[in-house]
Amino acid sequence: MTGEAMPERVTATPAALALLAEIQQRHGPVLFHQSGGCCDGSSPMCYPQGDFIIGDRDVKLGEIGGAPVYIGGAQYEAWKHTQLIIDVVPGRGGMFSLDNGTERRFLTRSRAFDGSEICRLPG
Q1: Tell me: the pLDDT tens digits for 65-97?
Q2: Beta strands in the chain (DSSP E)
Q3: Which of 12, 56, 79, 112 is a Cys-bridge partner for 86, taking CB atoms 3.0 to 4.6 Å apart?
Q4: How far apart are CA 85 and CA 78, in angstroms?
Q5: What's the pTM value of the predicted model, to 2 decimals?
Q6: Inter-residue contact 71 to 103 (CB < 8 Å)
Q7: 3-state class of 99 per DSSP?
Q8: Contacts of 2 by beta carbon, 8 Å cutoff, 6+ apart
Q9: Cα(77)–Cα(41) distance, rounded to whole angstroms?
Q10: How far is CA 114 from CA 5, 19, 26, 39, 119, in A?
């Protein structure tokens, strides 16, 4: 063990953190769930914390701006060697996501962990 920190499974760009702060100011505590491709594609969906039920197979990837970020278990298995980067682009958010109506939407970018990072990931 080298004592290096474990790599973060999810991060956010400054633009995503700024939009998130606006949403939190309007709606209070929120969470993200990485969509699996139904209805709104594969967008990270932003919900009030009490309005979305986390499933038994959902995996918490981490937090961005104080908001927990989850992904479905099957999708996690496919992406477990990948860091998700939550970003913002112009456009309309998902129908049920709190970014809808802001003329900006959250977008997931990704990068594969390198070999040294993979060795530090749990499990």
Answers
A1: 999 999 999 899 988 899 999 999 998 877 788
A2: 10-12, 30-34, 44-48, 59-64, 67-71, 82-90, 104-112
A3: 12
A4: 16
A5: 0.88
A6: no
A7: coil
A8: none
A9: 18
A10: 14, 29, 38, 32, 9
